[in-house]
Amino acid sequence: MNPRGIFVSPTEFVSFAEARKRGSLSEEIATRDRSMDMSFGFILPNPDPILKRQGKDISVYRDMRSRASVGGPIRRRKAAVKALEWRVERGKASARVTRLCSDVLATYDMDRLLNEITDAVLFGYQPLELVWGPFNGATVPLEVIGKPQEWFFFDNAAQLRFRSRAQPLLGEELEPRKFLLARQEASYANPYGFPDLSMCFWADTFMRGGLKFWVTFTEKYGTPWLVGKQPRGTPGPEVNALLDKLEAMIQDAVAAIPDDSSIDILEVGDKGVSADLYERLLMYCRSEINIALLGQNQSTEASSNRASATAGLEVADTIRDGDSRLVCATINQLLRWMTDLHDGEQAPAPTFELFEEEDVNVTQAQRDETLKRAGVNFQPQYWKRVYKLQDGDIADAPPVVSTPAQAAPPVPVVEFAEGTSPAVPGETVSALSAGASPVFASWISELRSLIQAHRDPQRLQEELLEAFSELPTQELTELMALAFELAHLQGQDQAAREAAHG
Predict the structure, then answer these.
(1) Model pTM greater than 0.90?
(2) Each residue's pLDDT tens digit, 42-62
(3) Distance CA 496, CA 489 (A)
(4) Taking Cα atoms as reference points, which of 430, 433, 431 lies closest to residue 441?
(5) Dihedral through CA 103, CA 106, CA 107, CA 112, nearest 10?
(6) What are the Cα distances from residue 22, in Å, to 2, 9, 256?
């Protein structure tokens, strides 16, 4: 045996140094237990810099929501998510568990659920407790209830724990599949997630301070100053009595003074310059809050133009999509647990999706209606693709009952009063082509080749739509009518030729 290694097989030799190297690669080295940061204990504190410096808990962010400058953008951001439609996509999951998940989600107050899940973007994380119970013969979460963030903390293993009255320091370990956890930008260093309200803290603080000083400034300099004049040597009690009368005069605008006293009204000049400083501070703080919560301030500022406001709405849509992905990830975890319980842990699970219902293209709908009246029959696949319809939305056409073929009765020849002979189909086609306008003549030339190449009417319709898709709706309708008339006439002409030759 080689002292520096060992044969693990008759042909493979592994040295001890290589074995130690392989073991280190498969193990985690940089952990909290081995880190030089001695602040880590059993309880992992929230690393939010605002909370650490202020010595406060996350409830300070909840107090900020009561102010209109912060609560308004929060309401707008949540409303953008709650305005989306939702559905459960089956994918590779079984039909039974997909139907069960859809039925369970339909019983929830979805507005309340979305509102509680999106609190995670404001506070960083949001625990939601599941209350399981029987439903249609299956065990499912009957309720999903959002709980205050202050009741929970993360331990050194980044596991969520409940700070109960019985265990206020170490907390209680949570049961599996009992709590959902929605988090925004959670990481190894910060399992609590990143709260967007932390970006609004100082702006909201300075805004409240600036508003207080602005109100004081307005009270002090917004009204004229009353100056009372008395002769030199007037006793102090009489001076104080005049001051009391001036103070009462500010409120009531009425005062009685001695005949040897006088009152002057002074106006403070250049007050607007000082007042503008407070207003600019408040507008700056409000703009910072809108940028933090909405990603832009162009859709809320009066100085923005149409182009900047439109660009700002695109940024708001991007943030809405990010919030909706957080909601979908949270609810998908719920569907995953339901699938594990009923189909097994390895079975595919359905997925929850939030989507925006697209408006129907009115121009295209009018075009399709006009073509339908002209005789174009679209397939169900076309309606599903263009108008986002689902299976079962379109009623199947009634089956055509075939009857035994019977000899067609002879068609009588109609003689008009003028006594003209009926036109031969071939001559009618020639006359139609010769009498048409140059545009129709070019159409007929191209239509002839398409009609001769495609005998199937449905295939002919598709080729016509593809060849003349750039035409306006009115001209396309006329073209379709002309094409079917031309095909009909050519069919009559061919039948007449075959009849003439026996």
Answers:
(1) no
(2) 788 888 888 888 888 888 898
(3) 10
(4) 433
(5) 150
(6) 19, 17, 99
